[in-house]
Amino acid sequence: MSAKKGAPELKHLDHILVTPSAIKRRVAALAVQLNADYIDKDMMVVAIVNGALIFTADLLRQLSIPLRLDCLRASSYHDGTKAAGEPRIIDQMKLDVRDQHVLLVDDILDTGKTLAAVARLIKSKGATSVKTCVLLDKTARREVPFEADYVGFGIPNEFVVGYGLDFNERYRHLPCIGVLKPKYYGGK
Ligand code: IMP
Ligand code: MG
After folding, report:
1. Residue 46: which of 90, 104, 126, 98 has the closest Cα?
2. What's the gap in Å between 110 CA and the centre of ligand 1?
3. What pLDDT was estimated at residue 5?
């Protein structure tokens, strides 16, 4: 078998913000916290896809508590690096959240609009508790007051890709989190 090569898109990164090993350590620490906090609860994980896909997959495999998984799709991005307008829920979840302890999982908390809207929706459907877990938090960009209950890493105000995060649906498969070279997102 030939030696495994990294994705060619890694060359599109200007710099790496979070390495695969740092992600692995932090995801394990978050799982320890969640295993303790939800020990006597039946948890329902709701992943906001596509961004939360890889983070959720790694996190869930380290949880040792009973849980169910559902996904929903929200969209506020239109082919760019800036959110446009209010988030829309474009693919609803299948499970009933009534009387459930819901953990919302997303890749990144940016303006806060997506998680604020989704948390509001899930509470309105009668969930017993709604908590949020994000891999990344860009506090400098917040437009609505919102704090996540579980945060992987606080990051500076830069557009990042990798480990689930995309630019125009690309780069989600990169194992690290990094900042694109300006020429790849149409900057200077
Ligand atoms: P918010 O509603 O502004 O908090 O946006 C949350 C969503 O925007 C995330 O779930 C991501 O899909 C996307 N997003 C925000 N910042 C970035 C980024 O730096 N890279 C890639 N996607 C991002
Ligand atoms: Mg997203």
Report:
1. 104
2. 5
3. 77
Is the domain spanning 8-74+88-184 CATH 3.40.50.2000? The answer is: no
CA 88, 112, 106: angle at the middle one, nearest 5?
75
Nearest Cα to Cα of residue 142 among 151, 5, 10: 151
How many Å lie between the centroid of ligand 1 and the Cα of residue 7?
A: 23
**pLDDT tens digit at each of 188 positions of the chain:** 556 678 999 999 999 999 999 999 999 999 999 999 999 999 999 999 999 999 999 999 999 999 999 999 987 755 566 666 678 787 788 899 999 999 999 999 999 999 999 999 999 999 999 999 999 999 999 999 999 999 999 999 999 999 999 999 999 999 999 999 999 987 54
What ranges do the domains of the chain cover? 8-74+88-184
What lines the ligand 1 site, CB under 6 Å? 48, 51, 76-77, 83, 87, 106-114, 159-161, 165
Q: Are 78 and 84 in contact (CB under 8 A)?
A: yes
**24 token code pair:** 């692995």
Question: Which amino acid belongs to residue 156?
Answer: P
C-alpha to C-alpha distance for 25 and 111, rounded to whole angstroms: 26
**C-alpha 76: how far from its chain's center?**
14
Tokens of 10: 């890694």
Place of tokens 């969209």: 75
